Amino acid sequence: EFWQLEAPSLERMRQCKGWILVLLMLLGLRSLAQKLPTRDEGLFQMQIRDKSLFHDSSVIPDGAEISGYLFRDTPKRYYFVVEEDNTPLSVTVTPCDAPLEWKLTLQELPEESSGEGSGEPEPLDQQKQQVTVDEGTELFTYKGNDVESYVATSTPSGLYQLELLSTEKDSNFKVYTTTTPESDQPYPELPYDPRVDVTGLGRTTVTLAWKPTPTSFLMGQPVQYCVVINKEHNFKSMCAAEAKISAEDAFMLAPRPVRDFSPFDFVHFGFVPSENGFGKDRGLTSNKISRAYLAKPKMSDIQKLCIGNKNIYTVSDLKPDTQYYFDVFAVNSATNTSTAYVGTFARTKEEARQKTLELKDGKVSDVFIKRKGTKFLRFAPVSSHQRVTLFVHSCLDAVQVQVRRDGKLLLSQNVEGVRQFQLRGKPKAKYQIRLRGSRKGASTLKVLTTTRTSSKQPFPSLPEDTRIKAFDKLRTCSSVTVAWLGTQDRNKYCIYRKEVADNYGEEQRRREQNQCAGPETRRKSEKVLCKYFHSPNLQKAVTTETITGLEPGKTYLLDVYVVGHSGHSVRYQSKLVKTRKYC
């Protein structure tokens, strides 16, 4: 009687030993050709306690998520043992890079004859139900890129095989298997409504809200939320988003180095000659050579932001009139496992259509741009024309100028000071000008477009270099001698001086002075003189002036204004000079 009571349990023990033996034989076949490396015993004992570290093994640990990698069209098999009958089982497979095909089978072996059995043969219909072929009993199959699970409340003891295959490309995946699904719950639980809602929409912002996971307050597990933003599609798992981020990072572009240009110096009066040659192509250009923009690294099209445990978040710095996809993942901070909410998408609002300013041929227009703002101008010549001359005078900080002719981009440059552009004309063409303000502050500009070829333009002609040169050897206690370049056009030049503090710097000068403010804004006491000057030979278009009546050891700010035919003036770059203290 005692033997009869214990026989079932002994039978289960015998079957369990059989499954373990088969599993060891399968693993042994894989390692026959491998030379086992030596190991640090202390390190091994520490690592063996962490089941997730054994992801390269064909044995799936119970209760730990493992990561794996599949080569295309190369199946991979994993095994695990269920030791007792009527055991609950849960197997979860998470595809990352590509859709997967996976299959779960129960590997059964032919029953061995036992002396303890009754010896009576089983009915034929029961024998047919026992599958003893090598492929085993197929329990579940799936093909796709969803996070899919096989869940059974009662499974027989035996050796289980999980086979995975990727037919599209090499791919990453994750697998979690447990025989205690009720108590484990490794993945954060979704609320009854797992959708992500868009609660606010702007031109560059989208506000998201979702219901919190019950895992944090019911089970006391640490949970944080991560938001993924991209322009292509929603993601079904965190590892799918991370795989995309890794691919984007691999192709990030490094910024291209740029070289700043140095203005040429005068060759007269002891100036150092320019390497590029003095006076070449000098004429109606600018008072400062434009600085090249630093090439910015290409921003990734996908972002991942982990925001803690708050369930409302506003995504900023988006592009107007652009569709974005938003995914939220609840992440168990202790195990790093995650669950995806039902993602959403939204299109940001269009940029506010700004009023376009119509430019008139030969008339100067004043334009004000807010900090980082944009203004649109339009020029539509009435008659046919061969070229269009565009003058841009940036009064404060540099602005970006972009010109299109009938939608075709003609130029895009950073402008500081005065610039003149010659645009090739086209019959019935229309020109669109976009001005983008500085990041530092508001910008004020004067803009002129004309198709006329008259030499009398509203803006005065300028040399390429508009610096004022002071001669240290000619400096005295009461005077300084300066020089500046002119052009072939006869223009009026006015010199002004102003005493400033010794610590007066370039940054203070830039903040205080408006490049478009003319001589009419200066005090009469600051005026030194006005004179007309030009030279048919650009090599000789240099003039000097000695400013007298100064105080010893004092600092002065000198300005030269060149005035055009219509009264518009342009100021040269200011110059700080200091008289000698002792003579």
TrEMBL record:
Residues 1-35 form the signal peptide. Residues 109-131 are annotated as: Disordered. Keywords: Glycoprotein, Neurogenesis, Repeat, Secreted, Signal. SUPFAM superfamilies: Fibronectin type III. Residues 188-338, 460-569 form the Fibronectin type-III domain. Its main location: secreted. SMART domains: FN3. The keyword Transcription does not apply. The keyword Secreted applies. It is found in: Secreted. It comes from the Eukaryota. Secretory protein that plays a role in various cellular processes. Acts as a chemorepellent acting on gonadotropin-releasing hormone (GnRH) expressing neurons regulating their migration to the hypothalamus. Also promotes neuron migration, growth and survival as well as neurite outgrowth and is involved in the development of the olfactory system. May also act through the regulation of growth factors activity and downstream signaling. Also regulates extracellular matrix assembly and cell adhesiveness. This is Protein NDNF. It comes from Ataeniobius toweri. The lineage of its organism: Eukaryota, Metazoa, Chordata, Craniata, Vertebrata.
